[in-house]
Amino acid sequence: MKSAVETLNPTRVRLTVEVPFEELKPSLDAAYKKINQQVTVKGFRQGKIPARVIDQRFGRGAVLEEAVNDALPKFYTEAVNEGELNVLGQPEVDITELKDGELLAFTAEVDIRPALEIPDYSGIEVEVDAVEVSDEDVDKSVEQLRERFATTSPVERAAQDGDVLTLNLEAKVDGEVLEDGVAEGVSYTVGSGELLDGIDEAVTGVEAGNSATFTSELKGGSAEGKEAEVTVEVTEVKSRELPELDDDFAQLASEFDTLEELRADSRKRLEQMKKYDQATQAQEKVLDELLKLVEVPMPEKLLADEIETRKHNLVNHQLGQMGLDLAKYLEIQGKSEEEFDAETKEQAEKGIKTQFILDELVNKEKLNVSQEELTEHLMRRAQSSGMSPDQFAQAVVEGGQVPMLVGEVARGKALAVVVEAATVKDSNGEVIELDDEDETAETVEATEADEAEAGAEEKPEA
């Protein structure tokens, strides 16, 4: 076999391949065997029909077509390896010549990873938020914990802000009660802003056993978006009582004996959360600066496929689960279709660039992924997917996605190398020494194109 590579642009090549006919013999033999098992000819046992009879009865062309389709992936792969190409996606194959007994010639156009030059990234400098926890932050945290231990008790008075009510609701549109516009025994906290616009004003001052009517735009159901006349009946009023902020509360709500110990622990937890947010912010900003340093030619077909994948996942999975279509989603977001398309393209380009650059860094820095690192990453991914580690691992193996997970971990390590080399300062001008974050890979996953190389190993067909 002879092959040659023609560079069409920095991200696409054309392979020209010539195969001597004798190299097709294994595929020809397989084609005759396959046809033998599929057809019957009077006077011959199935599977024992001579090749010349198959040629006469079914045509030599059918055999050649079967043999070529069987052989193409092998010859294509040999040509790719011979050219030392890093291909992306499926090739577009065109058979240019097929002479029975003499020659098979074909061309294959395919996207390739562009060659990248990674410049010195040690000069990257970014600013992140300082880790500062105020007394007000601690007060808010303790107050949220206090809210969780609130108790309720029935009262014989009009409803007021903060009360927990039991309500019956009935919605009418154009004077007709909606089939899905009736609800009973609904629990509602006055002032929470939930359910319907206008409900807080309607129920405030109403005692149990009385009702009120107000007009509101429906947020869901069969008449979503329409103005409705809503009658709300208050069947019970309960007051919420918060526990006193003292040592007894600390002992009730935590493992601490005093309120001061509880507040100190809250401050510590808030500091840890802000340090984690600071590290994530540093990773994202360093990645953005790294992307600015490297010129990345964009494979057009790969980009188009990635944009389509992102749209498909949004419409058929995320929006589908919420009962929305794209038009309604754009209306809620206040975006035009043109703005949505532009944003999707920008995100897809950033994802592909991120993957290309970090993969190049993995090779440059000779980074490897250990079994322990892969297992830890798998555990995190399983947790975020809502599956058990065993279920997730089985799905990954059956889906042939182990290399994808290995790539995610490796890219996370590559980003960590760049972050370590960069100068990170907080908003107070202090240089920050970031801990080795196990979650670095999640920052990568949020921006890279998950399907950027989907189908890269699929077989070509004529």
TrEMBL record:
GO terms for molecular function: peptidyl-prolyl cis-trans isomerase activity. The keyword Protease does not apply. Its main location: cytoplasm. Keywords: Cell cycle, Cell division, Chaperone, Cytoplasm, Isomerase, Rotamase. The keyword Nucleotidyltransferase does not apply. It holds the Pfam family Trigger_N. Residues 162-215 form the PPIase FKBP-type domain. Belongs to the FKBP-type PPIase family. Tig subfamily. Consists of 3 domains; the N-terminus binds the ribosome, the middle domain has PPIase activity, while the C-terminus has intrinsic chaperone activity on its own. Involved in protein export. Acts as a chaperone by maintaining the newly synthesized protein in an open conformation. Functions as a peptidyl-prolyl cis-trans isomerase. This is Trigger factor. It comes from Streptomyces mooreae. The gene is tig.
